Amino acid sequence: EALGKHGEAAVPHLAAVANCLSYRWEINGTDYGTSVRAAACEALGKHGEAAEPHLGGIAKRLQDEDEDVRKAAYNALKSHIEARGQAVAAAVEATKKRDRWGLARKLLDEIGKGS
After folding, report:
1. pLDDT at residue number 2
2. Distances (CA, A) of 112 to 1, 85, 96, 109
3. pLDDT digit string (tens) for 20-64?
4. Are 23 and 35 in contact (CB under 8 A)?
5. 23 in helix, strand or coil?
6. Could you tell me if residue 30 is left (phi over 0), alpha (psi between -120 and 50 degrees) or otherwise beta?
7. Are the beta carbons of 19 and 58 closer than 8 angstroms?
8. What CA–CA distances, in Å, run from 95 to 1, 38, 43, 108, 113?
9. In sequence order, which residues have a C-beta less than 8 Å from that of residue 1 and are 6 or more positions away?
């Protein structure tokens, strides 16, 4: 959330945020990294063009085991559709084969690339 509030000042840190997209911290089979992954999606969703290199990583979170992470990834990608629809479509297309929850198809439909 803090990165989203800092606008351009946060841009140099987006690569570090993107590294958090795959963060896992498991204890006794419980994944405590879900809030970190969701927050990374949310932060990258607020940074427009500067976050474009990380769209693929966000799209992979559409297949996360945690529903909150999937929702955050969906919302982040949706926020990029208007300005970067082609880039979002390419990132989402790469995850479509494992689309257990239908979120990739839903985003592609919104972009107009659904099949």
Report:
1. 44
2. 30, 9, 15, 5
3. 999 999 999 889 999 999 999 999 998 888 888 999 999 999 999
4. no
5. coil
6. beta
7. no
8. 26, 18, 21, 11, 14
9. 39, 42, 43
* 102 DSSP assignment: S
Q: Which residues pair with 31 in a beta bridge?
A: 26
As beta bridge partners, residue 27 has 30
Closest Cα to residue 18, out of 67, 60, 74?
60
Q: Count CA atoms closer than 13 A to 45's CA, side-chain side.
A: 23
Burial of 20 (0-12, 13-18, 19+ CB in 10 A): middle
- Amino acid 69 reads V
For the record, the structure tokens of 69 come out as: 């992470």
Query: What is the CB neighbour count within 10 angstroms for residue 82?
Result: 9
Token look-up 């290199």 returns 53
